[in-house]
Amino acid sequence: MAIELPHLALESLARAEPDPERLQRPLLVVVTSGAAPRVHTANRTARRAGARPGMALGDALAVLDTPELVEHDPDALRTQLEMLAGVLLRFSDHVHPEPEAHRILVEVGRSRRLFGGLEALRQQARDTLFDLGFHTRIGLGRSPAAARLLARLRNPAIAEDPESLRRLLTPVPLEALPLADATREGLRAVGLRQLGDLLRLSRAELARRHGPELLDLLDHLLARRVETLPRFAPTPVLDLPLRLEHEIHATTALAFPLKRLLRQAEAQLRGLNRSLQGMALELTHREARTRLTLERGQPGIRADEWLPLWQTRLERETLPEAVIGLRLRASRLLDPPDRGDSLLAGDPASRPPADQLPAVLARLRARLGEPAVTRLVNRRTPRPEEAQGSRHDLAVIPAPVAPTPGQRAVGAALWLQGPDPTTPPDQPQWLGRLEDGWWDHGQDARRDYARAFDRQGRRLWLYRCLRSGQWYRQGYWG
Amino acid sequence: MGALDTLLDHPALWRGRSATPAPDAPVWPSGHAELDRALGGGWPRGQLVELLGAPFGCGETRLLVPMLTACGQDDYWIAVIAPPATPWLPGWQTLGIPPERVLLVHTEHDRDTLWAGEQCLRDPAFGVLLAWLRSPVETALLRRLRLAASESRACAILYRPPTATAQPSPAHQRLRWQATAAGLELHCLKGAGHWARSGHPVQIPDSPGR
Fold first, then answer.
1. ipTM score here?
2. Closest to B104 (Cβ–Cβ): which among A360, A374, A414?
3. CATH of domain A2-140
4. Contact flag B61-A349 (C-beta cutoff 8 Å)
5. Which residues on chain B are in Cβ contact (under 8 Å) with A356?
6. C-alpha dist (Å) from residue B100 to A169, A354, A397, B90, B117
7. How many separate domains does chain B show?
8. pTM for this one?
């Protein structure tokens, strides 16, 4: 299967563009590397006005009314194409991007049954790329060369055996073949017009007159000789940059480009057969960067699950300056989870497995901020005011730590505060003694813990410092 | 009609959205026989319960320890939202509450507290919600919380200052607590059972062992 992306340059731009109105105006992608700047691609409005690819920029400017000009960036297009190749990995394990031709080849011979036939497979591939914002021309053939040719000719026919392939290719004009100019001229000079004319001639004669490359091409086209293509292996990290053509000042306006990025991430992860639990978003400003992270309770890749989380997260942010680019990254990709979706998953009575984190954590953190949602862990030090640390990394459930004997000695109070100096209580009920830091001169703590009532009826948790005799309130008994 | 009634009484038939709670409505044990009777079995799951009183620290958290222990041992999570002090988890653990199941959420406004509470109730992993409100709140927000609670299997406890007694509330039950010399006195301000009608307070003595 050969997938051509005829509007790759324009559609890459459109993906980054939050304002669809702008795309209606004439837009030119310009190559500035040569002697005079030339038009590489023009959008529909510009073409209607008379601009053509290959035209000198000066000529195009003469026919267009203040077009948008964007510089042609082959590296960005290559990255884009490789991203799409990663997406197509879900249809086959053998994918080969051809960046010069804006084309991706996919070996689908083994996947056709899985996807319900070639026609269904083609439709799925087309829909997948269309959802990402790309139009495609897809050709299916027994050989890569035939598929390329059919994609270029927009011929939807599928030839299953050598004979029908031959019949299909017979009326193809020679201009459509990827031939060197000299060869093409030579063939035209002897009166050959169609591929069928070539096939009728003797092979030895053709090779002698027009070179062995022509024979190679014919063999490749008719699948008489196997053309091996390298396999595309995507990098196993998620890193999707997106340059915005317009500055964005409000966080709400980020939703549109972000949605695109998340869709793309979903498609790519589907291709890689990986999942993720957390991702980071970098907002690029002119000078600085803002880095935001998001972590969920359960791994998942669906864009429509991540988008509301990011929106809640972004609502909390105020942009220090305008955003000119986005970048979505995830360094830790996970194996996909088992499909545990049961029929009655929505039943509130069913409880998720004990070792899984509640899904709500991500939502809470997105709105309230990461430090606001915590779990306390025991640091196993005796002094209560230092014995607990808050743990923000909720992805891992820590092993339970039993309270140390020193922690048991101070009593099973419920609430911790202070310590604050206080007046001696009336009738303290003694709990136990804590001795800590006696090896550290001046830092020792010898305390007798007690609980007592105060006048308001509160159950206080107190201690008396044995050095000074001063009473302190450590918290509430509960 | 007779045939239909027989059918509806059939124990194997489960009816969604029944208006009255089933006689064996799930509860968490309260640990006090008298309170269990008054509450109709224990702390009700799937209900919003307001506990009104002041000041913080009179034993109104210790009152719930048996429920928290049962909840933690059943592997449910406990959400502690906007408490006035930090939980002393080694103490909780000594009482039998697994500390790794306690989620602590800090909020700046009561509005966020209610929102976070609602989110937690919508997650089936939570068995108990403890939330503290500092000031009067809009009834509409409380109504949302009540709705979330009644669709969940968690017992939602909302601690409010005693001034909120005057304000009507959509909570399923409202209990007012007062510290006494021997423990805690609970008055039922609102509820479905006979306790609310009788008007008798329930005395919860301080347990010396805990």
1. 0.84
2. A374
3. 3.40.1170.60
4. no
5. 125
6. 69, 11, 7, 11, 19
7. 1
8. 0.61
